[in-house]
Amino acid sequence: MAMEGMRELSIIATPPEHRLAVKTFVMQNSDTITREAIMRELRRGGQVYYLQNDVSTISHRAQQLAALVPEAKIGIGHGQLNEKELQKVMRDFYHQRFNLLLCTTIVENGLDVPTANTIIIDRADMLGLAQLHQIRGRVGRSHHQAYAYLFTPPKELISKDAKLRLDAIASLEELGAGFVLATHDMEIRGAGELLGEEQSGQIESVGFSLYSEMLEAAVKALKEGREPSLAELTLNECDIDLHIPCLLPSDFIGDINTRLSLYKRISSCSTPDEFEDLKIEIIDRFGFLPPPAVNLFEVSWLKKIATDLGIKRINGDEKGGIIEFNSDHKISNEYLIKLMTTCKHNEYRITGQSTMRYNLPETPEYPRLKLLKQLLLAFSANSSLAK
Question: Tell me, what's the pLDDT at 56?
């Protein structure tokens, strides 16, 4: 509801003063890197979290770490300790009576320890994205640079979703990225019943993208004090057919998914600047636009103008075309009457209750797209939109 504008959403993204982002490394488990990371922190007088979320093997891992880093003083903390034991471990760690805490995910709700600025997470692929972000937040609680090492098995043994989670947590190191990570988490795991029938009705019958656009149109209408109409909710766009090729050719952009994505982005553009920016991006990625792609951008822009004017349909060819208006079109009726009465060669005439015929044959200097563009711009200048 917040994302669609029905509820306010505030995001706290400003970190405390002098706080530094935690440097994050995703890599295969390595004793060499483990010792190097721990010793670097100990040499600067800091403390280290080593997270292994398996109580049955945590004592064995403590022995391995003692042999690997004999310089470290190791304490163990996990949820199966009784309350007093766990309290003593965390208090001793806070007061720096030992400098390496071997623990489970229980520390994600732990104390604020400013001197602990390195965390090593074993089998990070087994943890959720939000959980990784929360655990990583245990370090970097002061002005010192903090480090997080996310150890994993070999890449071929990691699931697809785990790779996505690790890529997300590694790519978003900056402070205040929690909300962005939450959206990544929703994309990876799915939104559950948020988009299901119980929560959102028959959303599958129209698809999420169209559903969002219809919801946005309804919210906009209600905010303006209007009752949303069916035509508005179904996004009754003008249909333009000029009998010319308007597409992104397969020999220009080979991947069908990329083409579909670009079609969607073109249809979502609403200003000349947005169309121009997208056109520049496509040229930069794929080269100069072929004529059908140029036509696609022109027709998409004209469709936006015609829809705003309240035009229902335009059907044109090399001799002219037919324009069908909606009952609530925005064009000045006085201008349309003047257009009919002042034309010399019957270029414009009414052919139905809400239909106008324009007889403007195309020429090499004025192809049908250019003629229609000039006509729609004239309509726009003589409409309620121009006021």
Answer: 93
- Could you tell me which of 109, 104, 13, 5 has the C-alpha nearest to residue 55? 104
| Residue 103: predicted pLDDT | 95
Quick check: 178 and 133 in contact, CB under 8 A?
A: yes
What CA–CA distance (Å, rounded) separates 174 from 190? 24
Going from N- to C-terminal start, the domains of the chain cover 23-189, 197-236, 237-386
Q: Among residues 348, 350, 351, 370, which one has the least CA distance to residue 359?
A: 348
DSSP SS3 for 333? helix
Question: Shortest CA distance to 266 belongs to which of 276, 252, 254, 253?
Answer: 276
Residue 374 pLDDT: 92
In sequence order, the 6+-apart residues with CB closer than 8 A to the CB of 281 are: none
Burial class (CB in 10 A: 0-12, 13-18, 19+), 33: middle
pTM value is 0.53
Spatial contact of 97 and 44, defined as CB atoms under 8 Å apart: no
- Classify residue 65 by its DSSP letter: H
Mean pLDDT in order along the chain per 10 residues (387 residues): 70 77 92 96 96 94 96 94 93 95 88 92 92 90 91 91 88 73 70 60 64 77 79 70 92 88 87 92 93 94 91 91 89 88 83 88 91 92 81
Rounded to 5°, the CA angle 196-199-203 comes to 50
The closest of 214, 225, 161, 224 to 190, measured between CA atoms, is 161
Estimate the crossing angle of helix 31-43 against helix 58-68, to 10 degrees: 70
Between the alpha carbon of residue 211 and those of residues 190, 228, 237, 307, the distances in Å are 17, 15, 16, 20
**The two structure tokens encoding residue 208:** 């999420």
- Phi first, then psi: what are they for 227, rounded to 5°? -85, 120
- CATH number (3.20.20.450, 1.10.150.20, 3.30.1330.10, 3.40.50.300) of 23-189 reads 3.40.50.300
Q: Is 171 helix (H, G, I), strand (E, B) or coil?
A: helix
* Residue 227 pLDDT: 80
Domain 237-386: assigned CATH number: 3.90.1150.50
On the 0-12 / 13-18 / 19+ scale of CB atoms within 10 A, 9 is exposed
